[in-house]
Design brief:
With 551 residues, this protein is of the alpha/beta class. It contains 17 helices and 21 strands. 38% of the residues lie in helices and 20% in strands. α9 packs parallel to α14.
Length: 551
């Protein structure tokens, strides 16, 4: 067994094109580090609807140039089997973007080389840019597919590979399985032509077109007075966001300078995710210096947006808004502006969006988690998911976009400011109008993935009949699908005035439980009591569900 392991490692080493991972693997082979070699060579990173994502390093269970070249070859083979989309015989165009993480530029170049070698055309964005620019470029340039090299808000040791098709939205089944089959068919890297030239490096015209498109996000003549603090979280969002804000006429955001420029090591945060404890501390400090109207933050590839608002009752004097709160605020703003079309959200997001849409006589749909599903809603006008993702201009970007969402929330803050109001005040108004919708999440990170499978098995075998003293009125195993949803690994429990959904994360070693309670409230005077009741219910839901799941 160990001889076979060493043989596979040596075979991988023989065709590894990267000096760094070759040296790393050679050390492991020389040391006969069987535990580490087993971790790297037992299986391969699985290509799915999230593409690829994993820890950087040598071997098929890590993100590296060998794995990326195989993935690109599989994608190229899949695209060629689809034929030419325009029927004119020209080779399809694949647009490639990348963030500033370790090895991202190398992975982008390898992808361009593989596409060119396969007889497709390839165009690489001019430098590390936000993921939404890549999603925009696919539609703008009429590409057959796009690839974004990013691990979003994962730890520094990770990287990833996200695939879009020609409509500008991320892949969904069966495309993911068909691409995965083509990847598996790649026997050796020697079978994959990789010319050293022949692809195009785009200039700033594509970025300029993206910025021009942001004009469509804002209402002509709307107030543009709100002052902001902005953090790019060591990612690639700063320059694009500043250009968009300047173009719109907003005051220049005050930057969190320690986090403003790209740094793949993310030195000031444990996790480069605005939702993680401590990640926003520097932004809060900057806000205490500059007294802005709101704080805005992107994750490292700038497809997500976090928002914080002044709150004298909060410890830092500022309160982070939940993704569901921002989602409701943006929806209410679009309704006020007279938006038409479908409002879409993932099933784990707040049911408040349904009520806002119903009041405005607008279509509303729920989809599976992820913008690969949300963006495919028919006649979509607005889509969001609780994990800080917002699609506010689906004709321009058929994906979540932290830049345009920042423009829209700042327009709303400006509009309210002109009227002597605040974002928190609007949330209060929505609670009185539709009921107080309070959400929370129970997220458990594990080292051993079998613990997640065990928790899901336990819940399926022994489903809870009551949580927080509320009877479970409906228990659904989403792996069987529903009338409106395809199958997914998840469970949904409907209670009297509450809802719980649990699912394994698609991108991280986490089990995620999404909780919502709805408390009726007749007047603004009743809000404090309603919030206290909601907090107690959410606390009890967390406690009881942890027990039921054994986590």
């Amino acid at each position: 067994m160990q001889d076979d392991l060493l043989a596979r490692a040596k075979a991988w080493l023989a065709e590894d094109p990267d000096a760094d991972t070759r040296a790393e693997l050679a050390r492991l082979i020389e040391a006969e580090d069987h535990a580490e070699l087993t971790a790297r060579f037992t299986g391969t990173l699985q290509f799915g609807t999230a593409g690829l994502r994993g820890e950087l390093g040598a071997g098929p269970m890590r993100m590296n140039r060998s794995v990326v070249i195989r993935a690109a070859a599989g994608l190229a083979a899949y695209l060629k089997k689809q034929g030419t989309p325009h029927g004119d015989g020209t080779a399809g165009l694949v647009v490639i973007g990348y963030d500033a993480r370790h090895k991202s530029a190398d992975f982008a170049r390898d992808t361009a080389a593989v596409m060119t070698g396969a007889g497709l055309r390839a165009a690489v964005l001019p430098r590390p840019l936000p993921t939404p620019v890549l999603a925009f470029a696919i539609r703008h340039l009429g590409a057959v597919a796009g690839v974004e090299v990013t691990a979003s808000h994962n730890p520094p040791r990770d990287n990833g590979y996200k695939v879009y098709l020609g409509d500008g939205s991320q892949i969904v089944p069966p495309a993911d399985a068909e691409i995965a089959a083509e990847i598996d068919a790649v026997r050796t890297l020697h079978d994959v032509p990789r010319p050293e030239a022949g692809w195009q490096t785009l200039d700033d015209d594509v970025l300029d077109a993206y910025l021009a498109r942001t004009d469509a996000v804002l209402a002509p003549g709307s107030p543009r007075t709100a002052r902001t603090v902005y953090t790019a979280m060591h990612g690639v969002g700063k320059d694009t966001l500043l250009a968009a804000f300047a173009r719109a006429g907003f005051p220049r955001p005050a930057l969190v300078t320690e986090q403003a420029d790209p740094d793949p090591d993310f030195p000031t945060v444990a996790f480069p995710n605005p939702e993680e404890p401590g990640a926003m501390d520097l932004a809060f400090a900057k806000a205490r210096e500059t007294d802005p109207d709101l704080i805005i933050a992107n994750d490292p590839d700038a497809d997500r947006l976090a928002v914080a608002v002044p709150d004298p009752t909060a410890t830092a004097g500022w309160r982070m808004l939940r993704g569901d709160e921002v989602g409701a605020l943006l929806a209410a703003h679009l309704v006020t502006r007279g938006a038409h079309g479908t409002f879409a959200e993932s099933i784990v997001s707040s049911s408040l969006l349904r009520r806002i849409a119903a009041k405005a006589n607008l279509p509303h749909v729920e989809t599976l988690t992820g913008f690969k599903w949300i963006a495919r809603a028919e006649n979509i006008r607005y889509g969001y998911e609780e994990a800080l993702g917002y699609c506010v201009d689906p004709e321009g970007v058929r994906d979540k976009d932290g830049i345009t969402a920042a423009l829209l929330i700042t327009e709303l803050a400006s509009t309210l400011k002109e009227a002597g109001r605040t974002l928190l005040g609007l949330l209060d108004d929505l609670a009185v109008e539709h009921g107080l919708h309070a959400t929370d999440q129970l997220s458990v990170r594990v080292e051993d993935l079998s613990l997640i499978a065990a928790a899901m098995h336990r819940l399926r075998e022994q489903p809870p009949t009551a949580l927080a003293d509320l009877p479970v009125t409906k228990a659904e195993d989403l792996s069987r699908g529903t009338d409106t949803l395809p199958p997914t690994d998840g469970l949904r429990y409907t209670l009297d005035g509450a809802r719980v959904i649990v699912r394994p994360s698609g991108t991280e070693p986490k089990l995620k439980c999404y909780l919502e309670v709805v408390v009726p409230v007749a007047t603004h005077a009743g809000l404090p009591a309603a919030r206290a009741k909601a907090t107690d219910l959410l606390t009890a839901l967390k406690r009881d569900f942890s027990t039921a799941a054994g986590i």
